[in-house]
Amino acid sequence: MSEIDLNKLEYVEDEGFQGEIVVDFLGTTVKPILIIQTEDDKIDDIQYESYNKLIENWDKIQLDVIEKVLDYYNDEEKGSYGPDDKEEFDRWWPEINTTSEMEKQIELDGIIIPYASMMDDVYSGRCVYLTFSKKYGEDIDDNGIGVQIINEEIKKIGYKDIAF
Q: pTM of the predicted model, to two decimals?
């Protein structure tokens, strides 16, 4: 990952800056969308700082993320919904017991930097969300996995709509 290049991002009124970036996630090059939520066409210092701290700590954060997503899958998500048929249910919810198995089941598709006012008023610090699509669980609504990171520590994992 590199620093924010506003020339590669498009400003969308009432939404903020958006654009595809290139990221190495656990040895695989992916192109997630970067969204910086703003109320005008300016990025606040805390948003820059949140992104830059993510970059500085990316090697550690991505390892923490895959471990926590694996735990989330096995402790909370696996089997929480699905078809009644046992064979189909087992296809929806495969055995995933290692981080390398989990790496094959998810793909980083978004990095979201929330509004600066949210960081000041709600999170009391730097905040970044990572969103992932997933191959298991018949993700019909494309509501994969969202990971909330505050001050470079994972605070919450859930559906990706936690980022919006």
A: 0.92
